[in-house]
Amino acid sequence: MKFNISPKLIIGIIVFTAFYFSMPVVNAEEIKESEITVQSFSPRDQNGGVADFLITLSQSIVDDNLLFTELPKNAIQVTPAVEGKARWMARNQIGFFLDSALAPSIDYTFELSTKLNPSSDFVLSGQRKFIHSTAPFKVEHAEIGFQYDKDLKKAKAVGTVTFNYPVSIAGLVKYLTIKTENGTEIPYTFQKQNAITKTIIIKIENVSRLLEGQYFQVQIKKGFKCPGTQIGLKKTSVTEIVLKQSKELQVTRADVQQINGVLYINLGNK
Predict the structure, then answer these.
(1) Which of 149, 208, 216, 246 is the most buried (most CB within 10 A)?
(2) Can you tell me the distance from the alpha carbon of 110 to that of 132, in angstroms, rounded to the nearest whole number?
(3) β-pairing, 237-243 with 139-149?
C-alpha cells in the first residue's frame, strides 16, 4: 500500500523541527530560581516574638530535616557589624537571633546572600538589603521630690529617671550629670538597685541647690553605651526634670494649755 506524502508536508515538518530545536530550553529549576524573593523582613515587635528578625521567602526551599538548623555565617551580613545567628524557622522562613543588643540611633543594614546555603540549588533574587533603624536613646520620665530622713534628721531629695533602653549603673557613673537651670552641677549618689535597669533612683543630700529653681536637666554625655552594645551615643542626651511642688503647711488643730502658770500653744495637722 502506497502513501502519497505531499512535498509541502515534508517541508513543513522539517521547518517545524528546526524551529523547535532552535528555541532555548528553560527547565523548571531555572523558573523556580528566578521566583525566589524576600516577601517580608520584620523585627521582633512585628513578628510575634518569633525571632529578633524574621525573613519570609516567597516559597518553601528547604526540607523539614533542616528546620531549626543554622545557616552559614555569611548568609546574612549586618552593617555596622553585630554578632548573631540565622536559623531556618520554617521551610520558607529564616530567623535571625542577636548575640548582643543593638545600639540606639543606628541604621543597621541586613544583607542576604544570593546563595543562602552554598549547597542549595536556588538563587535569591530581588531585594536583598533591608535597613532597621533603632530608636534614639531618651529619658521617658524624670522627677525629683523631697523626703525626710529620720536617721539623718533632715530633708533629702530623691529622684527617679526612666530610660527607653536598659542602662547599667556602673556605666552611668561617668556620663550622668544633673544641673540646675543656671548650669550648676548637683552632686548625687545612686540608691542601691539592680545593676542593669531602665529606671534608676538617685539621692541628693544637699537640697539647698535644688531650691534655686524649679527646673533641672538630666544629661547623658556623648559616648555612653547601653549594656551589650558596641556603639556609644553620638550626641549628649538632655532632658528636663520638674521639681515636685512641696505641699503647703496647714494648721488644722490648735489648743492652749496652762501648766504651772505657763501658757502652751499646741499646733498640729491631721
Answers:
(1) 216
(2) 8
(3) parallel
